[in-house]
Design brief:
alpha+beta, 4-stranded mixed sheet
Length: about 425
């Protein structure tokens, strides 16, 4: 029988509401019955909604950080309740109940140049608006598509921000006016990144929102998803190419805001590595086989087995100085204790499990596919550190020291890779 962790030793930084949230999230997961769990979920939703409406993001963040470090199952329950409230709603209009969802529509892009973002031309906007409706939505779904192609750092990301964005899209559906979210800071240039269209969709409660939900046999839903994605890509590609010229593009299935953004972040990691290797081949005028890589596991401490992100350092064969670095974030938990060498990891029986090095193994395979040399490089553990002066992440060199990633002085550095 699974026991609920002791919550009597809460961290001092948790507020009273933070303690209530963590307790309810743990009760939601560890309750002995669905009835008890559902009761805890409703109370947690009531508390979370009050905090979100009042803009108390710090309380949500503290509760989430506490559970992430102490109880991943309860953390997932907390995340489910908060995210669901922020990206969806049930509203009543003229005695009819409707369900609303904030939708992210992602495109992966990589290039040697800057990836554009910003407002869409009216013709492009109308074409994408109609293509989205025709290829992805079920019948009788109301929608509002923002006339902006968003970079990640220009989108709402914190739950309180996403809630406010959802409210704006709801009003947009009612008024019929396009929704443009408040402008945020300038986009940092990356060679591989995600771009997003955002939409609000609304349908009668209990009716399908997306076309794959409307298939008579649920066993056919996956095939219908794939078909819808193909149709969406065919219809949208000519217009997105106008907005993102010179970019390699990959369309991902649109869906609920939070999960879709997470999946896109995960997919962009391998594209970032591919783009970096291609760029370094051209900039340094050497083949990928001449590049070397150092992989470091970074976390809150260097002694434990859990890592929060990998940092991949590329070095020049002449002087073995680190010329570029990429951060590969880990979503969830990954443990690499006893599996630090590629040969050990790839032969380890647990290497494909979610918590036993599967993402590290993916990095090894990707680098091998690209021809980058790394076979004799141990995966050392480091405390997550950044430059005190500029805030850039530090990367491990071949000696196991943390350094800046810097291109040679005679190479024009006009793109940042992270």
């Amino acid at each position: 029988m699974t026991e609920m962790p002791d919550i009597s030793r809460q961290q001092p930084k948790l507020s009273a509401d933070g303690k209530r949230m963590t307790a309810l999230a743990m009760e939601m997961f560890y309750a002995s019955s669905f009835t008890e769990s559902e009761y805890a979920r409703l109370r947690l939703q009531e508390l979370a909604s009050s905090l979100i409406k009042r803009g108390h993001q710090s309380v949500l963040s503290q509760a989430g950080e506490y559970l992430f470090n102490t109880d991943m199952e309860a953390y997932n329950c907390l995340l489910e309740v908060i995210e669901s409230y922020c990206e969806s709603a049930v509203i009543v209009e003229r005695q009819q109940r409707y369900q609303f969802l904030l939708v992210a529509i992602p495109v992966l892009a990589w290039t040697r140049y800057t990836i554009p973002s910003g407002e869409l031309d009216a013709t492009v906007y109308q074409a994408l608006h109609e293509a989205f409706r025709q290829t992805l939505l079920a019948e009788d779904v109301q929608m509002s598509l923002s006339p902006v192609l968003y970079a990640v750092d220009r989108m709402p990301m914190e739950p309180v921000e996403v809630y406010r964005a959802s409210q704006q899209f709801l009003e947009s559906i009612k008024s019929g006016n396009p929704c443009v979210l408040p402008a945020k800071q300038e986009t940092v240039p990356f060679m591989a990144d995600g771009r997003y269209l955002l939409a609000g969709v609304m349908a009668a409660e209990g009716s399908p929102i997306f076309c794959w939900q409307a298939v008579p046999d649920p066993a056919d839903m996956e095939a219908q998803k794939n078909r819808a994605l193909q149709l969406w890509q065919q219809a949208a590609l000519p217009w997105i190419k106008q907005v993102l010229p010179g970019c390699h593009l990959e369309f991902l299935l649109p869906g609920g805001f939070f999960n879709t953004c997470r999946k896109t972040d995960q997919e962009i990691r391998s594209a970032t590595v591919r783009a970096a290797v291609q760029y370094l081949e051209n900039a340094l005028n050497i083949p990928a086989q001449a590049l070397g890589a150092v992989i470091g596991g970074f976390g809150k401490d260097s002694s434990g087995s859990q890592v929060e992100e990998y940092r991949i350092s590329f070095y020049h064969p002449k002087d073995r100085k680190i010329v570029y670095g990429i951060v590969w974030p880990i979503y969830g938990v990954e443990e690499i204790e006893g599996m630090s060498m590629p040969v050990l990891l790839e032969k380890h029986p647990g290497s494909t499990k979610a918590k036993a090095g599967s993402q590290l193994l993916a990095i090894f395979r990707l680098l091998r596919e690209l021809g980058v040399q790394f076979e004799k490089t141990p995966v050392d553990r480091f405390i997550t550190e950044y430059c005190d002066d500029c805030g850039a992440p530090l990367f491990a060199d071949t000696k196991g020291e943390l350094v800046h990633a810097e291109m040679p002085e005679d190479i024009q550095k006009d793109i940042k890779l992270h």
